[in-house]
Amino acid sequence: MTRANGPFRADHVGSLMRPPELIAARDKRGRGEISAAELHAIEDTCIRDAVRMQEEIGLQAITDGEFRRGSWNKDFISGFANVKNIRGRLEVFHRGEDGRDTDMTPSGFAVTGKLRRPRGIQVEEFKFLKSVTKRTPKVCIPSPTLLHFRSGRDAIDKTAYPDMDAFYADLARVYSEEILDLAASGARYLQIDDTNFAYLCDPRFRDAVQKLGEDPAELPRTYARVINEAISGRPTDMTVCVHICRGNASVGGAATGGYEPIAESLFNALAVDGFFLEFDDARSGDFAPLRFMPKDKVVVLGLITTKRPQLETKDELKWRIDQAAKHVPLDRLALSPQCGFASMLGMHALSLADEVAKLRLLVETAREVWGEG
Length: 373
Fold this sequence. Notes:
Layout lengths: L19 H11 L5 H22 L3 E2 L11 H4 L3 E6 L6 E3 L5 E3 L4 E9 L6 H9 L4 E2 L1 E4 L3 H4 L14 H21 L4 E6 L1 H4 L3 H9 L7 H13 L7 E6 L15 H10 L4 E5 L19 E7 L9 H11 L8 E5 L14 H19 L3
Parallel strand pairs: 1-6, 7-8, 8-9, 9-10, 10-11, 11-12
Antiparallel strand pairs: 2-5, 3-4
């Protein structure tokens, strides 16, 4: 039960490793050595190459690798008026085996006035992607929940928003404006990347949320309402999926713990077509929470890790797909890497050759399991 516009049996989360020439060009732009137009031209060339690579491997969903972004979330969210980047207020620490505490506090955002969308944020980038592929162009955007979760109520201007319901309504509205413009430009496959649902599976993050004065049991429902409102006006043939991410900036990631604390309420509350779920290691828990998945949704199993170069085996992947199929029928399953390959500029846990090998493994395994790529 895959849809014409995705998710596909072999799919991927979106970001790709930036080639060296793109990283160098961004550095030069930062130093003022090349113009914005020159950087844009280099980005165009690199995106064309990335599209060709994806098509040659056999992928149906094609992204621009997020090559025009420095960060998977900051560049996009900063496109809204009255939003600025700050250090997040959700303080979380992880004690390693060496006894040392590592600060896992994610960066955050402050809302300094009424939210507005002065212009399209991802629209022109999508138009270019659509022009250079004959397959399904996929656009990935960070979840609206990031504007609240990482810094809480105190980072939202109380003069502009004395009432949080008004804030959430405006948040859904500005996202809806972007999504409708993307749809008008021909986008029919949208992925919303959300770390916060996964963080709410982790007792450390749930404790940190409570210290900010929020209810970790209620937030998933609140956030689901915002996302549902943001996508409510989309065309009927637009596929929308949510990628629930546990953090990909390090091998250890950020959040740990299975999906059980949020599964029943979230899977049933979100009015999306599918979920990209991370299952690449023990920190994601087992497949049991999939028993709550509604029968009209597709589950894309993130079984191939992007955090380590070691290549999984087809037998291992097939065995794990079989285990997941005990909870969700095989016809409603698909396969992907657990996350993107480069959530931020210069984030290279793998080589470009490793990336290609994992994407080839993805497509070949999906073809052998489902008879399609």
